[in-house]
Design brief:
It is a single chain. By secondary structure, this protein is α/β, with parallel strands linked by helices. The chain has 14 helices and 24 strands. It is 32% helix and 26% strand. The N and C termini lie close together (6 Å). The structure holds uridine-diphosphate-N-acetylglucosamine.
């Protein structure tokens, strides 16, 4: 197993190229199941989750050629409709194949994903919506068994809660369904918007893209012709490197980024004392005079993302004053707190709210990554902690950060990947 050895850095400087978004790539790869042609996807990040989903598709019989940052997926050869436990247990987002496989083949089995470090993460809303579209769903021996021998039918779906992968799953199912599907309380994340846009360019009529009400006209099982496209930049990776700039009081320029997807993150960093120069596709963060405390509530897009909560907590340990961070989406997404405390952070937890008393002097030690974003918070803390920090179990980081240590090294951080 690999770990990262990180020594505290003075200031960082230079340029970091942002990779394609993991959370956009996953539904877009699943979407290839709806295609009759070979689909070319460009600007994919090199992260473990992408390999996992491509392996899942290969296991189903698809042919996937992944070269540099582009993949060619041919789903015409799919001859299997079961996503097995060994893959699904390593990545919950595997559930994204349920909607498209069911829509195309009329049946699908997906292993139930099981527990998750950051909370329960049920998939009841995905299943309820598919049932409304005419699917018969049974849970047997740890598997979701879904069938729709007569095809899926468009209908009106009102999500009780906003769900990102739930919305993506139903959009894909609706694309091949008969008639119109109306999704109310749809997720508006840029990753969902890109899925809609690519489907739209492939001939699926979708009204309300980027809003909470989507109207999707299905093709009644006619497969799609999907043109080559490029994945949008990863706003969470970008936000993480902005926090690296803020915590080390450095000037960093991010390229290949879409500032418009980072509104709430930039606003909070500004409140904390950072300033920026923006172009259409670059963000330069300038060193702040002082890191100020902040109040954060995680919510669905366009509000502050839960996927940036841990990184801002690391930053808040270096703010002069008391920061309050409320997590509204996942009940257990505070696993990084105890590791940050071990580095010297003064954080108290009360239910879904963390109170961070800054500024504390952090000191390096051995810490354990517990989930993807919690891991990057530990890396950020390590950049300013005295001595040396060893971040263990970085397979969590590798799930979602493309070449993290290379990108940090290139801007002057002292980071090394070693074997346990
Ligand atoms: C996606 C992102 C993840 C991000 C999360 C919230 C991907 C691959 N992952 O996860 O990085 O942290 O959005 O922005 O895009 N819920 C239910 N029932 C359901 C589905 C969800 O109760 O059937 C609840 C969840 O427990 C959670 C909330 O709804 O409290 C939002 O979850 P959801 O948006 O579905 O998260 P994911 O799509 O799994």
């Amino acid at each position: 197993m690999d770990y990262l050895k990180i020594k505290s850095s003075d200031t960082l400087s230079g340029t970091i190229k942002i990779s394609g978004a993991k959370n956009a790539s996953l539904p877009l790869i699943a979407m290839t199941i709806l295609a009759k042609n070979k689909v070319v996807i460009k600007n994919l990040p090199h992260v473990a989750d992408i390999n996992t989903l491509l392996k899942l598709l290969s296991n189903l019989g698809a042919e996937c050629q992944f070269l540099d940052d582009r993949v060619i997926v041919d789903t015409a050869t799919i001859n299997e409709t079961k996503a097995t436990y060994d893959i699904v247990k390593t990545m919950r987002a595997s559930i994204l194949v349920l909607g498209p496989i069911l829509a195309r083949f009329g049946h699908c089995e997906v292993s139930l994903p099981g527990g998750c470090a950051i909370g329960q993460r049920p998939i009841d809303l995905h299943l309820k919506a598919l049932e409304q579209m005419g699917a018969k769903i049974e849970i047997r021996s740890g598997y979701i068994e879904a069938s729709a021998p007569n095809g899926l039918k468009g209908c009106e779906i009102i999500f009780d809660k906003i769900t990102v992968t739930g919305t993506a799953n139903i959009i894909m199912a609706a694309a091949l369904a008969e008639g119109e599907t109306i999704i109310t309380n749809a997720a508006r994340e840029p990753e969902v918007v890109q899925l809609c846009e690519v489907l739209n360019e492939s001939g699926i009529q979708i009204e309300g893209i980027g809003t909470a009400i989507l109207k999707i006209s299905g093709t009644n099982k006619q497969l799609l012709d999907i043109n080559e496209f490029s994945v949008i930049p990863d706003r969470i990776e970008a936000g993480t490197y902005l926090c690296a700039g803020a915590i080390t009081r450095s000037q960093l320029t991010l390229t290949d980024v879409q500032p418009k997807h980072l509104g709430s993150v930039l606003a909070k960093l500004e409140e904390m004392g950072s300033s920026f120069t923006l172009t259409n596709n670059t963000i330069t963060i300038h060193p702040s005079q002082e890191i100020k405390p902040v109040k954060i509530v995680t919510q669905e897009y366009p509000a502050f993302p839960t996927d940036m909560q841990a990184q801002f907590m690391a930053l808040a340990t270096q703010a002069n004053g008391v920061s309050i961070i409320e997590e509204r989406l996942f009940e257990n997404r505070f696993m990084h707190v105890s590791e940050l405390q071990r580095m010297g952070a003064d954080i108290s937890l009360n239910g879904h709210t963390a109170t961070v008393n800054g500024k504390t002097k952090l000191s390096g030690t051995d810490v354990m990554a517990t989930d993807l974003r919690a891991s990057s918070a530990l890396v950020l803390a390590a950049l300013v902690a005295g001595d040396e920090t060893n971040v263990h179990r970085i397979y969590h980081l590798d799930r979602g950060y493309d070449a993290l240590e290379k990108k940090l090294k290139a801007v002057g951080a002292d980071v090394e990947r070693l074997k346990e």
